[in-house]
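Researcher: Can you fold this with 2-acetamido-2-deoxy-beta-D-glucopyranose in place?
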Amino acid sequence: MTDFSTIYKLCLLTVTCCLQASSSSSSRCPAVECWLVQDHVGRRGATTQEKSLLHISTDANSRDAASEQIPSDIDLDTVFFITDPAATLCHQSLSPPTRGSVQKAQCEISPFLHQPSTLQWVAPLTVSGSSPVYLQADWFSAALLGLNKQLVISSIMRAPTGTKDSNVILSVSSRTVSVQARLGEPVLLDCGFWVDPSSPLSGSGFAVEWRYQFRGKGRLVLAYDGKTDRVADTQEEGASLDFEGLHQKGNASLILQETKVRHSGTYICTVHLPYLQAQVLMELEIVEPPSLSIHPSPLPLAVPGQTLVVQCEASGFAPLSLELSWEFKGADGKSRPLDSASVTGHRQAWDGTYSQSARLELDTSSLGMGGELTCVAVHPGGTRRASTSLSVIGFSSPSIEDSMAMVGVALVLYGLIKFVSWTISSSGTDGADKVEKKEK
Ligand SMILES: *[C@@H]1O[C@H](CO)[C@@H](O)[C@H](O)[C@H]1NC(C)=O
């Protein structure tokens, strides 16, 4: 029994050791193909773009092994060995594509120029004016976009002068690269950052800035000074940060309490450290499908051959991208599209949503006894439909029963007329008699 338990313990120990070994080897992440983009001073602003490779590991000790696999088309001078303890660059969406896949992660790395910021809420981070010796190194900035826009990262790295052994000092990332939200909902724009705790820059405070951009115009959304822990400026009602998460976990996500149409656009999350900053961009689009109504409602009864004018009004939608059409479902239960719908120009309401209507001149002669008239609105936020019933009265080709009824009605009418005229004429003769009597 004791022997067995010893063997068992030994087995367990071996398994544990193996697991540990495998987990330590996973500190190496997949290499990322990247473009090294450099401006060359003196060559009249020429910019070169070279194929490059980023070897990434989460600790500096597991570097050497990685250097073996370098594709022949990549110049050894452009290969980077990056230590990223936070493993931000190890995200699976940055892994090399599998054979045959068209899509790839995007990556660009370029030399980074550190400098003190002149922004009012960032300037206090670099009060001393003299830059530390620590900055005397080669600095790089890498921008990465994961497959299917799962993730966007911007990292600032430091390499001792003349080497490509870089350490990530600051990483800013977002998992909400492209967000769609309904009108009036709260929305979260994700932004997280990580600062190398061993860097002399990490203890000196940080600042976060959210900016908004749309069609070339920009404005500040919110600026937060992490050194004095206060919101330096906010120009957007209902915009806030989770201040606890910001200091504890580097969660700089922006919360918009209630989305409005004017919130659609590009958002830029910038994290400042003394002399360094990194930023990520994301898109927010407010997508609200239309509400539909048909006028007049209900539709008046129509007689065959009459032309009815019907309007379908779509309102409260955004963005301005709408297709309005009409369908008719007759007694046979089959829907068919109706053409000749004319769509009006759009109007914009106070809340930024749009309205637009479609006018239909409906020739009832081809619609039998009537049926269901439907207005269809196709919008990025979904397809909406509104229906109303249409009755055509009378008869374009009378049935046997109709004819019989007509004959019946005619007969009754004839009888009535006869009866009435008889009563009048008989009462007329009575009167004449009386007159005659008086004369006597
Ligand atoms: C960041 O904070 C927001 C708001 O509190 C939260 O919803 C989100 O899950 C946080 N993100 C992370 C990565 O913790």
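Model: Folded with 2-acetamido-2-deoxy-beta-D-glucopyranose in place. Residues 116 and 129 are 8 Å apart (CA to CA).
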